[in-house]
Request: fold
Amino acid sequence: MESALEIRNLNVSYNSIKAVRGVSLTLERGTITALIGESGAGKSTVASAIIGLLPRNATAEGEIIYKGQNLLGSDEKTLRCIRKKSIALIPQSHMAALEPMNKAVSILKWKTAHSNQKDKSYINAVLASAGIDNPERILSSYPEDLSGGTRQRILIASALASDTDIIIADEMTSALDAPLRKEMSSLLVFLAKEKGITVLMITHDIEMAISFSDSIAVMKDGIITEYGPREKIAAKPSDAYTRDLILSHFSRTNNKEKQQSIILRASDISKRYSSIEAISSLSLTLSQGEILGIAGASGAGKTTLLRILSSLEAPDSGTVTAERKTMMVFQDSYHSLDGTMNVITLVSEPMIIRGIKKKEAREKATHFLHLSHVDESLFLKYPASLSGGERARVQIARALAADAQILLLDEPFSSLDRISTSQILTTLSSLRDNGTSMIIVSHDASFLLDAADRMIIMKDGAKIKEGTPSEMRASSDPYISFLLHS
Reply:
C-alpha cells in the first residue's frame, strides 16, 4: 500500500524536556491511523511537528516525509502552502482556532479560496456534511455565539472545504455529543475509503480508535509503546499500558441515598439570543452532596444553563437561588486559565484573594493539585505548554481552591483519556461524599449514567426528562435512547 506520509525517528524537546522520543509512523494512503494515549503523552506535539506549528522553544529532529520532501527541513512559505491546501489540522481547542472578531463564514471562505469549489452551494454542502443544517444562521454568527460542538463542526467543515490530502484530527470530536461524534468518525471513514484521504486520528478514546481506525499507535511519555493493525491491538495487546487503556472503565458506586437539603434552585428560567430560544422555562434543584448530570446534543442549551446558574449570565425570566458558593469549570480550558500565570500560581490565586498568606496558599494549592492528579513536574509550567487534559485537571484544582461547595462542570472530561477520567471521578466522588454538590454537563449521556445520581435530558433549550440513571435506561423516548446508545 502506498504511503502518504512517513515519520522517521521524530524527537521533539521543549527546552530540556523531551516530549517526543524516537517516534516512527507510516500513514498509508486512504487509511485511518489512530494515535492514542493519556493526556500529555505527546500526541498533539506529533501533530504540530507534521504541519510545522511547534512553538519557538521546541527543537525537532528526525524526518517527516511528505511527497518526497522532509517537512522538518522545509521553509515557512512551503509549510504555509501545505497547511492551506494539502494537510488539514482539525484542532482540539476550537476557540483558539477561530478568530473571535470574525464570523464563522470567514474560515470557509479562506479555505475555499484554495480550492476549485467556491460557490455558495458547495459551502452549504460541506457544512451539511459536518452536521450543520442551518448554515445561514451559523455562518453569520461569531464564535462566542455558538456552542462548543458547533464551533468544532465549523473546523471540521473547513478541513473538508479544500482539496485536502491528509486530515489530522486532534481530539476533533471531544466537544461533540455522542450521536454526532459517531457521525463525524463515520465521515472520516467515508473520506478515507471513498475519497482516498489519509487520516491521523489523535484521541484518548480507545473505543473510538478500535471502532474507526485501520491501525493503532499507542503513546506514553513521548514513546510509541505499541503499533500495529487495529484487530491485533484490540484482540491481543502486547504492552501492559495498552491493556490498561482497554480494560479501564469508569468505576464508581452511585449514591442512591435520598438527598436531604436543596442548596440550589432554578425556577422557570428562560433565555433568548435574538431569535434563538436557548433556555425555555426550565426548572431544577440540586441537593447537598448530589451529582446532577445534564445531557443533550450540542446546542441544546447546556452551557447557557450553567452560565445562568453561576450568575455569569442573567436569565430573561425566572429565578436562581443558591445557598452555597458556586464555581464553574469551563469546557474551554485553554482560554479560561490566565496564560501569564504558572500552574501553582493559578491554583494559589483564589486563596490569596481570600486573604490566605502566600506560603500557606501554595501548600494548599499543592494539596488540591495532587487531589486532581496534576504531576509536580507541571507546577511551574504555563497553560500553553500543557495538554488539554492537563489544563482540565488544573481547572478542577483551581475550583477546589476557591472553596466552592457547588461545582458546575461544563464538559470537564471531554479532553481526558479514560484512565485520567477515572482518577478525576474518584476525586469528585470523594468530594461528593464530603458534602460538595456538582452539576456535570456532558454530551456523553452514557458517561453520566455512571457518574450522576440524577439526570436531566435537554433538547432545544427545554428539559424533556428528569430522573435517575435507571429511569433513563428504561426510557422509551427515541431521543434519549439515541443519546444513551450512540
